[in-house]
Write a structure and sequence with these properties.
Chain lengths: 151, 112
């Protein structure tokens, strides 16, 4: 599994976004996945539900909102969406500057998460993602690691 | 202090694999073990290990239900090291996404 152009494209990246709280950020992430045609409407509610069950904060100023296992039926295709919040959002366990919303079904979900996590574990790449000012930078940061991972 | 490595191979018990709730629970428990002086690493067999207290690290393994993972530690106190690793191994082997695992996962995830 790679974070290919099929999984993340420039139109799925929103930089310089603002939200008043965690719930609004999740709503924005979910709405973006719906607009991209990656999920059906009920998936958004499932993203809120997942967040209440267990925080999707993963450290490095990043959260990875996604739906519950039960909501995978609403996933139409595997898709990542990136929403950046320069002002930061209080996420309970920490402040989030970057949301990577995930739509994935079945075991693919774990593979997408693994690929994403490898990028985020690189502190410099994570910092660059939080402060990126153009979509191309985000795409190359999330794509470059794949070449290393598969070399 | 080098050379005293205790390691244990265990099968991932969570139906969804090691991410989300199960990863939060395992990372939380590993962070507690680290506070007690036993830092535990986790790896797919033959691959580079990552810190078991890091949610990102756990997710980067891409470990699915039924996959084997290796827990290891170099902690000085061999007896305590083995006890802590076995305790974490039990958690990894459990289905942490089952309803009765709620309380185990309630704690805030640890900082990677």
């Amino acid at each position: 599994m790679t974070l290919s152009t099929d999984t993340l494209s420039a139109e799925a990246i929103r930089l310089g976004a603002t939200a008043k709280d965690r719930a609004e950020a999740i709503e924005q992430c979910g709405r973006l996945l719906v607009d991209l045609g990656a999920v059906e409407e009920p998936y958004v509610a499932a993203m809120h539900e997942r967040e209440k069950a267990v925080s999707t904060f993963v450290g490095e100023g990043v959260a990875i909102p996604h739906g519950t296992n039960e909501a995978r039926q609403y996933v139409k295709r595997t898709q990542l969406a990136v929403v950046q919040y320069p002002d930061g959002i209080d996420w309970g366990a920490g402040t989030v500057h970057l949301c990577v919303a995930i739509a994935a079904s079945g075991e693919e979900h774990v593979e997408v998460l693994a690929a994403l996590s490898k990028v985020l574990m690189d502190e410099q790449k994570a910092a660059a993602l939080r402060t990126a000012t153009d979509a191309a930078t985000v795409l190359s940061l999330l794509g470059n690691d794949q070449q290393e991972a598969h070399a | 202090m080098a050379g005293n490595t205790f390691q244990l191979e265990v099968t991932v018990g969570s139906r969804v694999g090691l991410h989300a709730r199960p990863a939060a629970a395992v990372a939380g428990a590993a962070a507690e073990a680290a506070q007690r002086g036993v830092g535990i690493r986790i790896a797919k067999p033959g691959a580079d290990p990552v810190d078991a207290a890091s949610i990102l690290g756990l997710m980067s393994l891409g470990a699915k239900h039924g996959d084997q993972v290796v827990l290891s530690t170099d902690a000085d106190d061999a007896e305590q090291a083995e006890r802590e690793v076995r305790q974490l191994a039990e958690l990894v082997a459990r289905d942490l996404d089952a309803p009765d695992a709620e309380t185990a996962a309630k704690q805030e995830p640890a900082q990677p």
